Amino acid sequence: MLLGTMAFELAYAFCFLLMQLPFSTIAQTDGKNISLGSSLTALDNKSFWASPSGEFAFGFQEIGKYGFLLAIWFNKVPERTIVWSANGDNLVQKGSTVELTSAGQFRLSDITTGKQIWVASSYGTGVVYAAMLDTGNFVLANRNSIHLWASFDQPTDTILPTQTLSQNSRLFARYTASNYSRGRFQLTLESDGNLRLYTTLFPLDSINSPYWSTNIKDSGVELMFNQSGSIYLTASNGSILTMVSDEIVSMQDFYQRATLDYDGVFRHYVCPKSTGSSVRSWNMAWSTLSSKPKDICMSIFQDKCVGACGFNSICTQDQGPICQCPYGYTDMDPADVWKGCKPNFVPQSCGEASSPEAHLFYFAEMQNTNWPVTEYNYFQPATEDWCRQACLADCFCAVANYRDGQCWLKGSPLFNGRIEPGSGIKALIKVRNESSTLISGDRDSKKKDNSTLILVGSLLLSSSGFLNILLLLITYLLVSRMYCGRAKVIQPYLVMNLKYFTYEELEEATNGFKEELGRGAFATVFKGVLRSSDNGKYVAVKRLDNMVKDNELEFKAEISSIGKTNHKNLVQLLGFCNEGQHRILVYEFMSNGSLAGFLFGESMPNWYKRRQIALGIARGLLYLHEDCSSQIIHCDIKPQNILLDDSIGARISDFGLAKLLKMDQTHTTTGIRGTKGYVAPEWFKNFPITLKVDVYSYGILLLGIVCCRRNFEQQAEDEDQMILADWAYDCYEQKKLHLLFKNDDEAMEDMKTMEKYVMIAIWCIQEDPSLRPTTKKLTLMLEGTVEVSIPPNPSSFTSSIM
């Protein structure tokens, strides 16, 4: 025993010494030497030097039509993700060169000016070769293979595994996704040892106050990104002070990077290297493992910058942030959200002290919308009506925020704009009448066209009294039609936060409702593309076929309730159509289909992804149940109603539609809302329907996610296995959970976590609703914050599928 202990300690010590060696010493044998006199010319995206494995490349990347960027990128990832660049602020033109001169200088020159754009500053002399290493590090080295310059020591917005940041090192976010010049955010490892994220006083690099920090007392000396994928701060003795990202992912199977993105979020990304069994179900694209901060919209709260988005805009956290304009405003530049939003109307004039224009304005309401630190006046106590009148009478007021007797008057430009779910703050946005749907130029043009038509008619028909009478009649009809048409356009916009579409627009967007994505008992979904003014964005157009059509106010109320929801685990409602018998909802398009297709396909999805999906669904339900402005019971949680976004993130769809459907137009023929197998027992017993019906459905869904099978399998190997809920409880009670996962190697290696998830699911499907956890507790159990106790026998599951 003693010899074994000593051997282990010696092996551990040897491994520790190896880890302390400089990365450059270990990595330099991987390099493929680039000799003096070598050069690259910017001609296309094929001009590069690759690392020995071909996984990284150094060379020129063409950035749109603007020029060429000298960069390092992942060369085997389809999108060739750039991780370092030399000239983001000064792109060079076609024909420009980068050269390792005979004197050992490495420089980039622009062909149009002949000037040197960038040079790698190597300390001292003696460079004899360059190399692109398999770590993603590009180096200049001397005869002894000592690195005189390394891209790892001059990072831009990204760090890679084996790379470190020392004190006072910085990462700068790029300006936009396609603009590699320095942007508005900075990550710095401070001299006090804390890692902090800052906004900058753009276009200067000067910093504002931090919006995220590690907040440690001990002084960190390095930010490490180790070969296991963990990112952490270390002390001078090498001990770990705090974890920045503790997600452990195999470097053998995944590419990894940590990037300060242009939106100000520091994200840890992974991308599978192949489609082998160890990474099955992962898309060959980057997925986010962790992010700091988690909600940047709520993190930036400063009085010297625009916030997470531009002036007058609103930040919404949705895999994001997403920047949007408030009602009555449009983007100054759709390609650059930092330029902010501008009003579609002429602001209120301050020409008269009595503000005679006050009667020309009205208020558009947006719930849970706020622009903190923008107010120039504050009143308490005040009624909402008094607050409205105070803003109308004040020509400087652009928005009034109101909540619980408090009134804030805010002037333009507005900054720090964001959606604050559950805050109860109402934004009253002052908008000029007649400008809610038409830009003034278009409106004046239409007025002019109608006036011209009437004038020409008068001249042609004024030759007789009879014709004059006819003229008056025609004039009346034209004017009436003009105002009636305008009223029809303006009226739907009373539903805030949503865009109104005409039936003609949606018919055009879907090419005559041609490409069907799915069909249910109450709706058909089509794929559509919005017109060019919306940047050709794909949408899902849901045409409601069977629903309550008599109550116009109820329809608007429900659509308004759905439109006010905003969460990264919900499918976002973008707009609607309510024209005659046509009632259509327009949602964002989810590129990866439904959870049903993901779970029940030919290959078994990755266990880590399944866990993330389960947690995402729970968080979305928690938002619907507790955090959105009006509580929503979904009533139909099932795999087909969980959609997957570009990052395989879970998005709940069809929430809020229950009140729009007839009682006899659901997926069953019993008048029960929901789908067989997922319906809570209380639907059959005339018990009160509460939030717990969604918890029950989630429990059945969670079992399907854990076991990768449907809730009912007619072709099961054994009759006892046909109903998943029955079988899962039997396996749990008999301590034979391995039978549930016999074809899932990952599950077998993580049996403790799998058992916890099965226990949570059993709690959720208790026949007695009072025994089921709340959505809050359910989420905390999944996150590991709350212990999961031993669940009782749920009694009976069969009633829910018979």
From TrEMBL:
Hydrolase recorded as keyword: no
Keyword field: ATP-binding, Disulfide bond, EGF-like domain, Glycoprotein, Kinase, Lectin, Membrane, Nucleotide-binding, Receptor, Serine/threonine-protein kinase, Signal, Transferase, Transmembrane, Transmembrane helix
Sample GO molecular function, one term: carbohydrate binding
Localization in the cell: Membrane
Domain Protein kinase: 511-786
Keyword Nucleotidyltransferase carried by entry: no
Primary location recorded for the protein, binned into one broad class: membrane
All copies of domain Apple, residue ranges: 350-432
Signal sequence bounds: 1-31
EC numbers, comma separated: 2.7.11.1
Stored Pfam families: B_lectin, PAN_2, Pkinase
Membrane-spanning parts: 453-479
PROSITE patterns: BULB_LECTIN, PAN, PROTEIN_KINASE_ATP, PROTEIN_KINASE_DOM, PROTEIN_KINASE_ST
InterPro entries given in the database record: Bulb-type_lectin_dom, Bulb-type_lectin_dom_sf, G-type_lectin_kinases/EP1-like, Kinase-like_dom_sf, Pan_app, Prot_kinase_dom, Protein_kinase_ATP_BS, Ser/Thr_kinase_AS
Assigned protein family: Belongs to the protein kinase superfamily. Ser/Thr protein kinase family.
Name of the protein this chain belongs to: Receptor-like serine/threonine-protein kinase
